[in-house]
């Protein structure tokens, strides 16, 4: 059985390519998925790639990843929920898989409310500000974890 890595995307990421291209670039979520599937395959993994605008669905998917045998981890771009969701913090803390928090933009160069993450204290790692290639960096990080 092939191990499956989860790549989970939160609110508004379905609008990549059209929403604030000066901040997020012109790459679409479909392009991100293609990148993630290729990076996961290079590590010998299948890739479960998902996006939702609903916080509870992200929580459910984190729980699912935690129940998935041999799951090497989760790459999570929670979007704005990063800055508001105690529920996501608790879900990450509750599952027995490493979660890498990803942000396309450098949130620390943006509005002050984006400087705080409820997820960072329970994340295995954080990739911030490298654009869409940050997803590949997060996947490589999971692949090289000791």
From TrEMBL:
Keywords: Amino-acid biosynthesis, Aromatic amino acid biosynthesis, Lyase, Membrane, Transmembrane, Transmembrane helix. The record marks 19 as: Transition state stabilizer. It is an enzyme of class 4 (lyase). Pathway: Metabolic intermediate biosynthesis; chorismate biosynthesis; chorismate from D-erythrose 4-phosphate and phosphoenolpyruvate: step 3/7. HAMAP family: AroQ. Catalyzes a trans-dehydration via an enolate intermediate. NCBIfam families: aroQ (TIGR01088), PRK05395.1-2 (NF003805), PRK05395.1-3 (NF003806), PRK05395.1-4 (NF003807). Homododecamer. This is 3-dehydroquinate dehydratase.
